[in-house]
Amino acid sequence: CSLQAGLAVLLKAERLFHSSYHSQAVHIRPICRVSHWFAQLPCDGFTSCLSLVQDASCLALSWELRQTLTVVFDFFSSGQGKKDWSLFKMFSRTLTDACPLASQSKVYVDISPKNKEKELLEVSPPPTSVHEAIVQGERRTYAVYDLLSPSLFNTSRSLNVQLKWKRPQDSSEMPIPTLHAQRYVGGYGLQTGQICTLIYNTHPYRAFPVILLETVPWYLRLYVHTLTIITKGKENKPS
Which domain holds residue 228? Predict the structure, then answer.
């Protein structure tokens, strides 16, 4: 559908490239469609059990293509000092319909309460459903807008999801995510130039595997043999 319908309508270049962060990725992987199956009859002298075991050889492959776009809009630190946002505020566009070729077309909004007292967030219009999931050991609540739902565009011709706080928040109090990172470039030249990335885990007891993707500046040459990873003062070798 390109930019005519569906979620891709929001991909306005001048808005995306002026955001705080954006990343595009393409993931391609083979998936086995047809494989050998054979029967296995284990016997211990008293009983025998029939089981089907999948052979390692694959007769037919399919290729899965997954494209992702990650964008971060930081309205809070841009001088407005508010956490409220909307689709139109971020993308200068709203959603009008789903792409007819899409089997799924959904928008998820994280409405998890910051504390356990009561919910401080409200989203409009009302979502078509609410989804709960466990993310990094914490229960998260998501408002789901299904663009394929006939009732979504009945009341309005466009969908402009808005999130507002029910009461003013302390501007100096920002929630710290469980995993966050900082990066800076130090030194100068090819001899002393370096990239330092600090990764923080604020969870009280849980450890998480981390996949680090680095974008190396064009002016900095990277020597892999000089890579060092320090955790709590000790060297930590990556897997």
Answer: 179-236
